[in-house]
Amino acid sequence: MSGDYTETEVIVVGAGPVGLLLAGELRLAGADVVVLDKLTAPTTESRASTLHSRTMEILDTRGLLDGLGDIPNDPAGHFGGIPFGLALPGPYPGQWKVAQTRLEEVLGQWAADLGADVRRGHEVTALTGTGESVTVEARGPDGAPTSLRAAYVVGCDGEHSAVRTLGGFDFPGTDSERELLRADVAGLDIPARRFERLEGGLAVAARRPDGVTRVMVHEYGSRPRRGAPSFEEVADTWKRITGEDIGGGTPLWVNSFGDASRQAGHYRRGRLLLAGDAAHQQMPIGGQALNLGLQDAFNLGWKLAAVIAGRGGEELLDSYHEERHPVGQAVQSNIRTQALLLLGGPEVDAVREVFAELTGHEDVRAHLAGMISGLDVRYARSADDPAPLGLRLPRADAVGEDGGTTTSELLRTGRGLLLLAPGHEARREELRAAALPWSDRVRVATAAEAAEGTDGPGGPGGAAVLVRPDGYVVWADGVSAEGPAAALERWFGPASARTPRPAAVREPAAVSAVVPAARERRSGTERLAGRTALVTGSSRGMGRAAAIRLAEEGALVAVHYTSDEAAARDVVASVERDGGRAFAVRAELGVPGDVDALFGALEADLLDRTGSTDLHILVNNAGVMGGVGPDDITPEQFDRIFAVNAKAPFFLIQRALRNMPDGGRIVNISSGLTRFANPDEIAYAMSKGALEQLALHFAKALGPRGITINSVAPGITRNGSPVFDIPEAVEQMASLSAFNRVGEPEDVADVVAFLATDEARWITGSFVDATGGTLLG
């Protein structure tokens, strides 16, 4: 393509909260994204400051709440200024006060950490679409024109959206008939007012913890003015309504907002999409506008990323409009009603009294609370779909085979979740097997206990529910008409390829051959596509061969080394030359802090490359030999051997299980010396014997998660030692093998690769003899 264009997969226009959340979601799912914003720096204005329950749950599922600090909570809300309780069952009842500036800061840092490219000072001036891409013309910070090309463009650029206008979206609705003046003012000492209706209008005054007072005022019967108001206009109106003089305060920010109500007829036009206020304009009463937009982004992000990755089609992307447009309509309807009750004069007093009385009834209060909080949203295919289809999955404590986590934490990687109910053992195993081909996109976990009033996550008698990355249930055992595999394919794309790898092509070999038969590398057999692997000690020898072999199967491989960076880089280069993916990671094993150091570096690289810290395959290959007879070995040498060969693998497994999805693979490289005597390597053989016990005992513990763990025992294998350059020595070593040759690193690598694939799912806790028949005697 032309060098005049910067190319990416998605361009998000608008770096407000909605655009930044969308950018983070796209990066979390692996899509490349550039964010353009016409402001040269983040705004210092907090137009919105209220987060509702569903939005808090969303932020929780991405681990973002801690970054917001202590958030003030108010269990009470209002409907058109009529106070009532917002609390509903869930972890975040009521409303939560977070300044928009702080929310943007946290979302921006998260998106940037995931690799989003945020470019400020870029104003979009034109859009040109083709069947394959969209070109965005923009004016840069220096006024110079620039062009970018992407597969999709999403407008998150507010109610005056350039993407909506340039993209030709229709935007029907009504203009403002009323407005509310608003100002943040320092240096005021006035009484707090909560939607106080006075003779001439409405007044609101709320002091923030930093001492700044936000005032809002509406004069009954007044019409919206053209342009932004001055502080003098706000102060004059405030004085007419309340009798208080606020003119001596220092205005930090002044604006107004009206009750215009508009919504795009469609949220998608080909490769253009809209989210947030670009898709719908409404009065920001009670913070619903911000929350509505954030929930748009959360719905769209994973779907768009799946389409880009080839795991979804037009139907999945169209479901964004189909699901969010009705939600937007419902919110606009309730906001128009609230605007009338809030800004109407004495003529609405009687209606307000009726509403106030109705909110005293629990079913009415709960209905309104669900509507405002977003907890009542249901993405069902039809109104009569049985529960829990289309509903959000409530957060449940102590979920997972090892306990100690929640459904929110399980969704933090941006993948789907197959949540199994307690009991139902036979059915659970069927469902685990059914989900295995989607293990790169769907986690499997078991609930610690059934939800109250049900037999399991899927309702009475249900053994499981399938949950989308945004937390909504799309399939329930015993409820859904389709089977689990059909639901997995509909929402998560085709199953991972499980085509058996072609058998190696062997050349005729003489009886005394000392080189392995040739092996043909064939394309189209990537059984590990979408998975990640760590091979310790993989800068040379069997570890190098294993890393290259796993990459050939499609895995992203972390090439671990201790000191020889050049050798590790050479492995990475070799993988990349063949079209694979790998990266080097350094850590010394067998020393204090070794595991934390390794995983700290590993997780950072995985997050940068995949948007996730998931590790699907662990190969414990690193090891040290003694080469010292039993009479001469020192305690220090003995401890070193065990620290690297046995202790490090144990704690690497322990740590890796925090990152490893269900269905993962662990392979430990042992040695034929646990079955074949060599007095000069007693300590080494002892350490490898201990390593083999890990497979035996961990296999029992990890079986319920579908994770396999096995020991592979190489024999005499060419490892770069000078002894392999001596023909006589090689001939003597070869005579020990049933094949009359020494082993090559690739011989062992093939065994490791097999054990890492789905084909080896029924092998665990085993000792695999990869000595070439040396142990036959």
Written description of the protein model:
There is one protein chain. The protein has 777 residues and is of the alpha/beta class. The model is unreliable at 451-456 and 498-524 (pLDDT under 50). It contains 19 helices and 34 strands. A seven-stranded parallel beta sheet has the order 30-29-28-31-32-33-34, sandwiched between helices.
Fold blueprint:
Elements: E1 6-7, E2 10-13, H1 17-28, E3 33-37, E4 50-52, H2 53-61, E5 73-74, E6 76-79, E7 82-85, E8 95-97, H3 100-113, E9 117-120, E10 123-129, E11 134-139, E12 145-150, E13 152-155, H4 162-166, E14 173-174, E15 179-186, E16 193-197, E17 201-207, E18 213-219, H5 231-242, E19 250-258, E20 261-263, E21 268-269, E22 272-274, E23 280-281, H6 288-308, H7 314-343, H8 349-358, H9 362-373, H10 407-410, E24 416-420, H11 425-435, E25 442-446, E26 464-467, E27 473-476, H12 484-492, E28 532-535, H13 541-552, E29 556-561, H14 565-577, E30 581-586, H15 594-610, E31 617-620, H16 635-656, E32 665-669, H17 682-702, E33 708-714, H18 727-734, H19 745-756, E34 767-770
Parallel strand pairs: 1-12, 2-3, 2-13, 3-9, 13-22, 24-25, 28-29, 28-31, 29-30, 31-32, 32-33, 33-34
Antiparallel strand pairs: 4-8, 5-8, 6-7, 10-11, 11-12, 14-20, 15-18, 15-19, 16-17, 17-18, 20-23, 21-22, 24-26, 26-27
